[in-house]
Amino acid sequence: MIHEKLDEHGVAELVVDNPPVNAFDLASIDALISALRGYGSPDSGVRAVVLRGEGRGFCGGGDVKEVQRLPGYEGILGQIHGSQNLTLAIAECPVPVIGAIHGYCIGLGVLVAGVCDILLASPGTPFVLAEADNGATSGIIQAIGLMPEKRLRAALFTCEPVPAEELAAFGSVLRLVDPEELPSAALALAHTVAGKRTAVIRGLKSAMAGSIGRDIRTAYRQELSYTLELNMSGEARDARSDFTEHRRPGYLHGESGN
Fold first, then answer.
1. Is there a cis peptide before residue 71, judged by omega within 30 degrees of 0?
2. Phi and psi angles of residue 59, each rounded to the nearest 5 degrees, phi first
3. Which parts of this chain are annotated as the region Disordered (predicted)?
4. pLDDT of residue 243
């Protein structure tokens, strides 16, 4: 479930509340995309967006159980297209999106964090690119917004957590904030952004996108070709089965119900 609130300062707050671990199922992904795309018009009154999670952590990844449950390739194709469209909706949202990350950030959560404009995180939060353990090869173009290339390679090949403190040292996380203070800190930051001239902020975000030149749409499509091959061969389904049957790595420590 996604809770959406808009305050009198023009700050939209999107809160992921999908117990037990905030796995992003297809309905949650669609709801986030719809909300973010709705902020495109200046008539929406939105000047900045805060994206955060309720409960134990920000995001336990895509809902792998849903992927396995749906017939044929319906689940994996839904997650593939949903992941691409959600990250594009954040990257292309004309106003800044501030991610507030706590507890844990896994898989699709890391991709989402990688395309947010600004990140705050609680100390000790692990960022885990779990693609290798789920038979996936995508998300590189989004995650490169968080860490240098060689560090990203290590994170992808090992699935070992990258702590929020390390991302803060890179400058990818603006500030470490205690979990209980994180929502209010993110809103305060969003209010600072919302206090600027809207047309200027929108222009700056568009200018940044052009200067950085991160073509998510094209690069993600190329990455997905390998994921689709792994699904057609059965390798990816076997990997997801291991994951959902609790033969999974220690980084989850029982947290993820994906």
1. no
2. -160, 130
3. 237-258
4. 60
* pLDDT at 241 (0 to 100): 67
Q: What angle do CA 46, 48, 198 make, to 5 degrees?
A: 70
The 10s digit of each residue's pLDDT in 200-227 is: 999 999 998 877 777 777 877 777 676 6
CA–CA separation, 84 and 224 (whole Å): 10
What separation in angstroms does the CA of 257 have from each of 14, 15, 19, 100?
22, 19, 9, 21
Mode of pairing for the β-strands spanning 118-121 and 175-176:
parallel
**Spatial distance between the Cα atoms of 96 and 242, rounded to a whole number of angstroms:** 38
- CA 46 to CA 42: how far, in whole Å? 7
pLDDT in tens, 114-167: 999 999 999 999 999 988 877 777 778 899 999 999 999 999 999 899 999 999
Q: How far apart are CA 1 and CA 249, in angstroms?
A: 27
Q: Residue 126 is which amino acid?
A: P
* Nearest partner of 16 among 29, 240, 249, judged by Cα: 29
Q: Which tokens go with 92?
A: 């292309």
d(CA 91, CA 126): 23
Q: What is the largest distance, in Å, between two alpha-carbon atoms of the chain?
A: 52
For each of the domains in the chain, give its residue range(s) and CATH number, in order of start: 1-176+208-258 (3.90.226.10)
CA 72 from centroid of its chain's CA atoms: 26
Question: DSSP secondary-structure letter at 62?
Answer: B
The residues with which 163 forms a beta bridge, in sequence order, are: 126
